[in-house]
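Record format v2
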Amino acid sequence: MKTILVIGMGRFGRHLATRLTEFGSEVMIVDKEEDKIQDLLPIVTRAQIGDCTDEKMLASLGVGNFDTCFVCIGDDFQASLEITSLLKDMGAKYVVAKADRAIHEKFLLRNGADEVIHPERDAALRAANKYSARNVFDYIQLTSDFSIFEIAAPESWVGRSIKQIGVRSKYNVNIIAIKKNEEIIPITNVEYVFKKDEHLIVAGNAKASSRMLSIK
Amino acid sequence: MKTILVIGMGRFGRHLATRLTEFGSEVMIVDKEEDKIQDLLPIVTRAQIGDCTDEKMLASLGVGNFDTCFVCIGDDFQASLEITSLLKDMGAKYVVAKADRAIHEKFLLRNGADEVIHPERDAALRAANKYSARNVFDYIQLTSDFSIFEIAAPESWVGRSIKQIGVRSKYNVNIIAIKKNEEIIPITNVEYVFKKDEHLIVAGNAKASSRMLSIK
Ligand SMILES: Nc1ncnc2c1ncn2[C@@H]1O[C@H](COP(=O)(O)OP(=O)(O)OP(=O)(O)O)[C@@H](O)[C@H]1O
Ligand SMILES: Nc1ncnc2c1ncn2[C@@H]1O[C@H](COP(=O)(O)OP(=O)(O)OP(=O)(O)O)[C@@H](O)[C@H]1O
């Protein structure tokens, strides 16, 4: 059972605290405004009202006892930076901060954040990949050089199997599943033959992916 | 070349417009506040200042000519709903709206949105999966029943190959890559032998994933 501190009940913080509790962690939430925590009281383990830039207030939470501390404040960047830095000074094991702009990320990482999350940037990248010119239905970047994407099965592949085409050796990608009418069916057999109107869920690095996207 | 309309230059809208332009689409941006579009002028194809709840203003954009129209407004839900509905009435081909709360999604889908995006909710789910009790380093849901996750190689697997373990037939998951010191190496050979301290990138449905996470 993990114990997790979540500071700031904006959209991201609220969803995070709710999901962490759902997955079985003990969650403590803090916000400086009372009305932001009222409706979460019955869901989370503990809740506290207070301004976390106040050292005494933060010290009273016992930050060293939490497995992970989240700072989910966007609009007031100075508060986010101060709280991140104070948490680290007080012995927080692992600090994750939310950032709104790339420049915030640099300062947060230099002042105590072990990791930074960009909700809007990540969602925008996924949407931009999905709606750009290429024949892509969904696209998720796992690292800067490895992605998962959903594409229509190339016409030249219909009626042939993974093995016959030599997908792995020729294109250096991994077909992980087929999508047909919103249902995803994991592919575990290289004898699988592609059919018309199927989408492929493919995994591979950037170079392999762009070659894959240009097959007719 | 796709042509895309993006209304609302908040954090999500700005990232979206920038990325869509980067991936080769023609992008038009609109915001009611001039200072929100100034710095994007040199990047996007066209920019316009105006209140999109005004029918005449929206009609002047020629919304029927865009492949996709995005409504990226969160704080003013009424404006988001009005604009989404007006776009559809004026013949927009495909409308994607950003939502802040689940209740917004319902109204947006009923009033013209073809799709709804929740940036904060999706980012929070990914973070909550990553930091919950289970031995998971990253976790992305592609659909409600298919996910990609990164876990430590189970001790009982170290020194054995995918084929020897019978990963696919026994666990109904697909090992798509190995992660070692931040580098992801696609796995395309079932003779691959797992080593200590490697992470696995695995794809599978919810049932198969939770079985996989409980192996020692
Ligand atoms: N010093 C502070 N101490 C405790 N809580 C704070 C502090 N400063 C801000 N907060 C709280 O953090 C929450 C989130 O702040 P903010 O509105 O900046 O988020 P946001 O980036 O817009 O979030 P989201 O995009 O997730 O909605 C608010 O509920 C606010 O009351
Ligand atoms: N009626 C409207 N017509 C055109 N632009 C609008 C209208 N209403 C709001 N906007 C613009 O939409 C942008 C985004 O609005 P808002 O602040 O609600 O976003 P947000 O949900 O906080 O975004 P994010 O989380 O992406 O930062 C603002 O720049 C605002 O000026």
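DSSP finds eight helices and eleven strands in chain A.
Chain A touches chain B through 66 residues (CB under 8 Å).
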